[in-house]
Amino acid sequence: MSGQNPTQTADITPLQQMTASCSGAVLTSLFVTPLDVVKIRLQAQKNPFFKGKCFVYCNGLMDHICLCENGNSKAWYKAPGHFSGTLDAFIKIVRHEGIKSLWSGLPPTLVMAVPATVIYFTCYDQLCTALRVRMGDHAQEAPILAGALARVGSVTVISPLELIRTKLQSQKRSYRELTACIRSAVETEGWLSLWRGWGPTLLRDVPFSAMYWYNYERGKAWLCKRYNTREPTFAITFISGAVSGSVASVATLPFDVVKTRRQVELGELQALNLSYHASSSSTVSVMRRIVAENGIGGLFAGFLPRVMKVAPACAIMISCYEFGKAFFQRHNQDRTLVPLQSDNA
Fold first, then answer.
1. Contact 317, 241 (CB under 8 A)
2. Which of 69, 123, 125, 300 could share a disulfide with 74, CB 3.0–4.6 Å?
3. Residue 183 CB: number of other CB atoms within 10 A?
4. d(Cα 192, Cα 177) in Å, to the nearest integer?
């Protein structure tokens, strides 16, 4: 996926690609999760959560809907403190609760982010390599199609896990009760009920992926040419990932706002044991409600926080991934050179 040489992906195995993407997802979560923990604390201070209230936890890699049951033991956040700003929140959280509190919510993030990222990045690499060969003169557009298809695959695989996790958070259930609940939903609504929310997720994530990969590959190639280097450096991949992630996040922000609204509405209804009617919460109807309540600007709510989270997350993720792939490429080349040298000797 280096942009200059499509055959480079063949230098490493799919298992090595999975390892590189897995390490990237873990490192990204470790770096970015504290930012979202602080953001949630500041939000809780201004608008305290109460029993049955839900909020969306997002660290730039994955979104999670969280039900707040008692504000302390069941929620992903502690009781609201008195913070004057972001830096003050960082200092007080570390001082009074310990540095580990900055990574609260990390386990569920990793449970969802790691498999999704592994599927997504590995599929992208394999698809992009194949498409570059087949598209000939239009090979530069291969990242658009490969990114979109890879995202469809990862979202489709992860959606049932997301639904199951949401049900576990919305009401305390044993795994036997959860199995019975899922079986009942399948019997009454069919297997497609396990992919509820799949459509709005695709509306946001597929355009994001298509724009992100196209801009990333073009930006990386341009920077390599500008600095006269054949292989992209860590700085080049970091800058390309940050810029392309920022552009894609702004362009798809309205769909992110809609998805967040739907997640919160669904979680609150589940908390109150009320039925969820998808027809009344379709993407178009939610957009209309947002525009009616807040105007067109409502569709771009959270512009700055989204860019501040997504840009570093994309930059760290792609940089770690490219570094991991380069490591395995060198490792494989060294292994092939050793037998050749021994034969010549």
1. yes
2. 69
3. 10
4. 20
How far lies 72's CA from each of 10, 69, 268, 297, in Å? Answer: 50, 8, 18, 34
Q: Which amino acid is at 199?
A: G
Helix axis angle, 198-226 to 106-135, nearest 10°: 60
- Bridge partners, residue 54, by sequence: 67
Whole-prediction pTM value? 0.75
> Could you give the CA distance from residue 216 to residue 212 in angstroms, rounded to a whole number?
6
Residue 73 has what pLDDT?
A: 44
Which tokens sit at 290?
Answer: 């947002």
Could you give all domains of the chain from N- to C-terminal order, each with its CATH number?
6-344 (1.50.40)
pLDDT digits (tens, 9 = 90+) for 262-319: 656 655 555 555 555 544 567 778 788 888 887 887 787 767 777 887 888 899 999 9
Contacts of 158 (CB under 8 A, 6+ apart): 112, 115, 116, 119
Alpha-carbon distance 321 to 22, whole Å?
8
Residue 312 and residue 60 in contact, taking contact as beta carbons nearer than 8 Å:
yes
Tokens of 232: 């992209």
Beta-carbon-side half-sphere exposure of residue 191 (alpha carbons within 13 Å): 1
Say what the pLDDT of residue 2 is.
40
